[in-house]
Q: What sequence folds into this?
């Protein structure tokens, strides 16, 4: 293999490496955004679950439990 062929191969490898570094960076950024979104969705899910539990507890309350105070 000639010196020129070796230089061309090295140049091509450097170009491929640069592209791969860009792809890895892009994928890393994408994964970070997805984890941030997952964290947000988990917090929202927890809040909604809490709200639903409170609504269920409220709906299970018998009407007689809400009797008017004695002064009525």
A:
């Amino acid at each position: 293999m000639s010196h020129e062929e070796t230089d061309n191969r090295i140049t091509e490898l450097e170009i491929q490496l640069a592209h791969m570094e860009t792809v890895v960076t892009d994928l890393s950024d994408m994964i970070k955004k997805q984890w941030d979104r997952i964290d947000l969705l988990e917090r929202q899910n927890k809040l909604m679950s809490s709200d639903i539990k409170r609504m269920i507890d409220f709906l299970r309350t018998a009407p007689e439990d809400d009797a008017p105070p004695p002064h009525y």
